Description:
The protein has 379 residues and is α/β, with parallel strands linked by helices. Helices cover 40% and strands 13% of the residues.
Amino acid sequence: MIPYFVPTIGRSEKKAVSRALSKKGIKGNGELCREAEEKLKGMLGASSVFLTTSGTHALELALMALRIKKGDEVICPSFTFVSTANAIIRQGARPVFAEIEKSTLNMDLDSLMGRITKRTRAIIPVHYGGFSCDIERLVAVSSKRGIHVVEDAAQAIGARFNERHLGTFGDLGCISFHSTKNITCGEGGAIVVNRKNLQNTIKIMREKGTNRFLYLQGKIKKYTWIDIGSSFVVPDMLAALLSAQLDRLHAINKKRRAIFELYEKGLRALEKKGLIALPHPNKNSYGNGHIFWILLRKGLSRDNVIKKLRKRGIECTHHYVPLHSSPFGSKYLGYRPGDFPITEEVAKGLIRLPLHTYLSYSDIRHIIANVAELLEGRG
Ligand SMILES: Cc1ncc(COP(=O)(O)O)c(C=O)c1O
């Protein structure tokens, strides 16, 4: 079976973890965390970055730090992971969903504009598959209206827009290092803080609402409770693993992007025949090869195609159940099927093809040939 995903973990990661253990690097938020944060900060060209226990926690911390509260509205796509919306709900605010574009699966900016009200406090664009919408336009529109932007860059490590790293455009950016991401520490994340006045708040909130960071710097004798918070700091052992992964990010993304391009070239003929649609990213968006998706023509059975590919030893997968049509979305938020036609069409017809650094050229040729054979009715 050609697996859908395999993390790129090798000797350098094993060495880094064992070195951390021999240095008794099991505490949280220690020197190995600082090392990984500095590396990530330098790579992103960001002013400050803090590791978190997951991408989910980075989103929760972001909305906590922005003091999003009951009565506020936060706009995000319905086509996203539950964590984007849960972070809003946990603050007592209301998620307002927007439609996506079929060519990128990013939030449609016209749909977004139509959903802005007096109550809109923040917008969360999701950089699907490591590509972004016109994030510069989104930030300009939002800041003119005093609305915060929190980038859900969970899938976007190393991806850029106009040469600038995703995650560095909004007030805050949230990255995931979950085991399915391009680089990983098992479970982990980071929050990119692009507004100086939020830095201390984030440091306090991620340490249970205390000023422990000042204590660790030797600036105070005892630390104490000064704000709301939770436990979002990462153990040094995982930070060591992440550090080793960060050293390989460039090579990993290069290989993933090359595979993405091979798929793109190999499947274009099927797109021309109208059997599938392929990603057509914004021209200023430079991806990280996180996902390669195809969207089947309406009427073709996606589940059938996935089943047949699996029988041929190729593991493919679908993606999100749209949040507006989920039980929570309909019962508690009042959304109905039909509210977002493009989102629903995409959710029904999308297939993600295998993408990881252990794929060979012959694997990719084999996958492309089998997809073509099945969709052209030859298989
Ligand atoms: C768009 C999006 N947001 C948030 C998350 C949550 O990240 P994590 O799994 O690290 O909590 C994910 C993870 O898959 C994601 O894809």
